[in-house]
Amino acid sequence: MFSLAQPTSTWYLILSAVLFGIGTIGVMVRRNPLIMFMCIELMLNAVNLSFVALSSQIANIDGQVAVFFVLVVAAAEVVVGLGIIVSIMRRRTTLTVDDMSGLKG
Amino acid sequence: MELFVFVAAAAMVLTGALGVVTRSNPVHAAMSLVLTLFGIAVMFVAHNAHFLAAVQVIVYAGAIVVLFLFVIMLLGVDKAEDLSVEPITNQRPLAAIIGVGISAIVIAAIVSSRAGLGPSGEGINQTTIDSPDANIRQLARVIFSDNVFAFEITSVLLLVAVVGTVVMARKTKSVGTGK
Amino acid sequence: MLNLVWLIPALPLAGFLLIFLFGRVLGEPRAGILATVMTASSFFVVVGVYLDLLSRTAEERHHVVTLFSWLPVGSLHVDMALLADPLSITMALFITGIGSLIHLYAIGYMHGDPKFSKFFLYLNLFVFSMLMLVLGENLLVTFLGWEGVGACSYFLISFWHTRDSAATAGKKAFVTNRVGDWGMMVAMFLAFSSVGTLSYAGINAAAEGGKLAAVTATGIAMMLFVGACGKSAQLPLYIWLPDAMEGPTPVSALIHAATMVTSGVFLLTRMSPVLHASYPWLGDVIATVGALTALFAATIAVAQTDIKKVLAYSTVSQLGFMFLAIGSGAYVAAIFHMVTHAFFKALLFLGSGSVIHGMHHEQDMRKMGALRKLMPITGFTFIIGWLAIAGIPPFAGFWSKDEILLAAFANNRLLWLIGVITALLTAYYMTRQVIMVFFGEARWHDHAEENGAHGDHTPHESPWTMVTPLVVLAGLSIAGGALQLPFSHSTKFLEHWLEPVIHHSEVSIAGSWAESNKWLLLVVAVLIAVSGVVASVAVYAKGKFKIIEPKILADAWRYDSAVSAIVGGPGHAAFGGIAAFDAKVVDGAVNGIGTEVRAASGLLRKMQNGLVRSYAFVIGLGAVLLLAWFLLRGIL
Q1: Domain extent at residue A59
Q2: Could you tell me if residue A26 is inside a domain?
Q3: How far apart are CA C103 and CA C107, in angstroms?
């Protein structure tokens, strides 16, 4: 059998970087606020992945502890963010992010 | 074996990510997000972070995405947005440059420091048949001893978030002037 | 007693504060009595200090009392310190002595005035400031007193401020003095920057020791002279003194005859080593300005009709004599004349005040006449003052004027000639004044109704509070010459007394033609004075010649209007130009910056388009750039 390359942590880190980039593009391109939020979740997950990969590379449990806390805070953030979106978009459901330009000037 | 797992999981992650970014229907985008989250959970398991994988699925895929779907249904934003037109000039090319730029720089950093990081901690306990909760135990020990303050404060954070959201999202008397 | 030198200015200051707090309660005449008592007690302290100084040897007559450290700023150390030495004690003696006499006089003169207490408030403040001026150990304490007397002069000149002319005269005095003050300030700056200290001991020691370059010394002395011109009313800054007669007569006597106007003379004498170390032409300049001022003012006095204006121009003229003496290097003669002038000029002013009071505030001499019988004491004392100022021996004015003429002759014959002509004119116009007021026929009958006298239209003698000082001053005017009699070395008391102060810079005339022939010059001076008197008698009393009082002299050579035309016309335009520059350029620059900032921010404002996605793009761009920079720097 041909010797298969072992996926080192570097591969995982590169994957997380690509995922992060996709998330960034999504935030800048999409106009629906809910989907923008989901792209932000993508970026957070990319970071979580890199934390775990590095924690197993340097054999330290602290990386997983960090992921734990990121998860909790992401949950809280989603709650608040969705609350904001609900209260803004309650009036008209066809609002896009571009229409909420009250800070113009 | 690990290579196969990695490739499969990576495919799931990337497909899901591209789906979130490109699908115009929000419900489809939420489904793609679930796919990504599952892929990430598989990768967590591959790194022996079993507890985190479980929490990822339960909390992220099980609660957060469900929350997203609730809001989509509540507000009725399932009507698709028109993805063919971009009101801000040059936004798409610039976004592409930024995204590619960030990824490229981070990849360059990763590649250049490949050899630098070596083991520095006491190691991660492997979950085995004999001790199926080894990972949880180690994680719990660290969280509740070294990081107990952070833990308590995050619980307060959750409480504050819930209370704040309830207050903020209340329907006021005159709906027309609600924020 | 010497350590109580600080009491000398402190007593009038206490008087000022007490009247300030309780003036309304004290009322008339207690406020006046309090002020007089304070000044008189100060006089007794000065006498005590004087006796103490006398008991020391000549080199040790120099005592400094430091009250506190006033300005310890960097390299500048100025103390609030008082210096008791022959010069300052001489000045303090006649300031407090004549001052207390004038306070007593004012109790009678200001009787019935609604602002009685306020008058004495200002008078005591003035005495305090003047004492600080002369007792100061350094230029800054002197300057404190200098400004104080200027301010008090303003207060007192415009005391009856409801009269427009009085208010204007006060402002004129203050502004003109300010021009002189600028000179003094520049002198202080120069002195500090070149010597490093403001104390007289330091500066004079540097000048005597040759450490002061001639250029610097000339600069300092010239600026001090500018200050002296302002304070002592020399050309071109004399214009405030005639107008200052708007103030009550005690003010004219105290401030504008005896004390404040002598500050310039005092200052130059105090800084005589600096004057000595400067270029010789400066002394000539000072002497020439003094002589010309003397002549100029004397010509004007010949044609004045207001009794006080004659005396005002006479003061300017006599001050010119003093500067003539200083310019010729004869400091002793200048101080001698200052002292005798204080005696007889105060006497003349107080006498004229008594006349004005008796004539129910009539000041025009053409409406007076034959008052000698109705106001005998006033008349008698005024005549003594007249004889003193005219230069008739053995009265005080003769000796001091002769000293000055002697020194002027030794220095510059032309200036001596100008001085002699001025002395002639002095005798002439003073005799004119005496004749018009006290002799001749009574002209006040026709004009008595104009002054709204209370029932009795006849002029009357003044109360004892006003007459007593007249008598005392008359005695001093007779005996004052004894200070410095030229007969022999031992009778030159003032010269010995002042020697520690001016020995370095006094120009001695020993060995010159003037010294050998001083008796001849003395006789010439007597003849000049007598001929002036005789000429005036012939014109005004006997009517033998026509009265020559040209209008241009009565208008004071139209100097005032010339000054107004220059300052009002081109001066106003120049200042208008500066004001426009300030408004357009300076303000314009500041406002322009504001306008430019607003325009720039207006441009930047367009970046805020309110779109979240473009903000996200900018954040992303920043992150990319930062990461790229880190990567390139090798940190990542």
Answers
A1: 33-92
A2: no
A3: 7
Cα gap C628→C633, rounded to integer Å: 8
Could you tell me the pTM of the whole model? Answer: 0.66
Summarize pLDDT for B114-128 with one digit per residue, the tens: 777 777 777 777 777
pLDDT (mean) for C516-539 = 85
Domains in chain A, number: 1
The DSSP output letter for C138 is B
The structure tokens listed for C347 are 């006497």
Token pair 């967590």 in the structure block, residue: B44
The pLDDT tens digits of the residues spanning A25-77 come to: 999 999 888 999 999 999 999 999 999 999 988 888 999 999 999 999 999 99
B39 touches chain A (CB under 8 A): no
Q: How many CB atoms lie within 10 A of CB C451?
A: 13
Q: What's the token pair of residue C512?
A: 């010159």
Residue C72 parent element (H or E)? strand C63-73
Percent of chain C with pLDDT over 70: 96
Mutate to test the interface with A, among C601, C609, C613, C618 (most CBs of A within 10 A): C613
C-alpha distances out from residue C191 to B41, C87, C213, Å: 88, 21, 11
Closest CA to C241 of C155, C174, C299: C174
In the stretch 119-158 of chain B, residues with CB closer than 8 A to chain A read 119-124, 138-139, 142-143, 147, 150, 154, 157-158
Q: How far apart are CA B166 and CA B179, in angstroms?
A: 14
Whether residue A62 lies inside any domain: the answer is yes
Over range A98-105, report the average pLDDT: 77
Residue A8 located in a structural domain = no
Residues of A in Cβ contact (< 8 Å) with C620: 24, 28
Mean pLDDT of all residues in chain C?
86
* Residue that wins the pLDDT comparison between B82 and C376: C376
